[in-house]
Amino acid sequence: MSDFHQNGIITDFHNLTRRSVEELEADLCRFARRRPLGLILPSLFSELEGHALSAIVDELAKVPYLAEIVIGLDQADRDQFLFARDFFSRLPQHHRILWNDGPRLRALDAELEEKGLSPQQPGKGRNVWYCSGYVQASHRTVAVALHDCDILTYDRGLLARLIYPVAHPRFNYAFCKGYYPRIAEGKLNGRVSRLMVTPLLRALKMIHGPLPYLDYLDCYRYPLSGEFSMRTEVLDGIRIPADWGLEIGVLSEVHRDHSTNRLCQVDIADHYDHKHQPVSADNATTGLNRMSLDIAKALYRKLATQGVQFSAEGFRTLKATYYRLALDLIETYDHDAVMNGLSLDRHAEEQAVELFADNLMAAGNAFLENPREKPFIPSWNRVRAALPDLPECLYAAVEEDNEGKV
């Protein structure tokens, strides 16, 4: 059972009573009459061929309160898009698929490219960004949730708890982050969050002193979770990274734009498992190796905007401080795992920490060598300023793909 601790920075919604999904959904149906609710699903076509997404769609088909489901489909040709239309047709809710590789959306992307506004990297960030533009253009929702499509332990109670804080008409939350324990097959998972982000934030605080931004990030129980919800209006002004820094980037943007009393997190699952990324120690372009690099760079860029000065010597100090804190945390996680009857490979944990420590330096060098890097996708506010008709064109293109010939 969850605890009831509040750390005072953002509100924490706990799972104190294991309230039934039917009760939550009854509330949400009432809320939805005043605040129409939606869902974004960023997906690769390959996920349509796995077991997780099919089970997720079966669960979503039972959800009674959603006004719209928006699916971002990446890496799909024409036949695969047609397959996806049939795959998602069992959803009774109004739903639309963004065929991101289709000719209509590619043409819009070319318009953005001419203005220097197109996302420069493929991936989840780009997918979510286009879905966000469509959600705003459709005007069907006031609040929207987002979750991944590879959740193996999914049930619709996860979505109900995730969207509840931004759906309740008496609450004033603009953004909500989901959290959960990463446990599967008797093992403690979530290495990047446990072994990289947490000790890195604490090392940065030790070196650079107390900063509200670092305290804010450190209050999230699972800052790298792919599940969050927000008022639709929030999507308008945020700039998100196109790389693996998406989750940290979103947290940074909502912190910049909103008071912390409008931000919250919620316990959404007792068990959560999804596709595990390999460490890829020998390949810095993929897996946890790439993820840790992108996250570190996202943090450095944000801290630089707050006046923190970095240097090669400072990054060496950061690496040493982080390394010691991370090793101490391995001991803590090991003891926690033992008490709960879970296994933890301490050798693999220390190997991961060594990789992450090296990547803090690599990310630091990249940051210093390329200070003009523009990793953020422009906000939709900026897109409308440069191309006022583009959101409406995006909406029309998606409608034609979903209802017309392709």
Task: Explain how this protein is built.
It is a single chain. With 406 residues, the protein is of the alpha/beta class. The protein is built from 15 helices and 12 strands. It has helices at 21-32, 45-48, 51-60, 78-87, 103-114, 124-138, 156-167, 191-208, 212-218, 246-257, 287-305, 312-339, 346-369, 380-386, 390-403, and strands spanning 11-13, 37-44, 66-74, 95-99, 143-146, 175-179, 183-184, 187-188, 228-231, 240-241, 263-267, 376-377. The strands form 3 sheets. It has an 8-stranded mixed beta sheet with strand order 1-11-6-9-5-2-3-4, sandwiched between helices. Strand 3, helix 4 (78-87) and strand 4 (95-99) form a beta-alpha-beta unit. The longest helix has 28 residues, at 312-339. It is globular and about 60 Å long. The relative contact order is 0.14. The mean pLDDT is 93.
Roughly what is the average pLDDT, rounded to an integer? 93
Indicate the percent of residues in helices.
40-55%
What fraction of the residues are assigned to beta strands by DSSP?
5-15%
Cα-based radius of gyration, to the nearest Å? 21 Å
Task: Outline the biggest β-sheet.
Answer: 8 strands, mixed
In one word, what is the shape?
globular
End-to-end gap = 50 Å
**DSSP summary, beta strand count:** 12
Poorly predicted residue ranges: none
Number of helices: 15
Question: H/E element string?
Answer: EHEHHEHEHHEHEEEHHEEHEHHHEHH
The main sheet orders its strands as: 1-11-6-9-5-2-3-4
Structural class: alpha/beta
GO molecular function, one term: transferase activity
Keywords: Transferase
Protein name: Glycosyl transferase
Organism: Halomonas binhaiensis
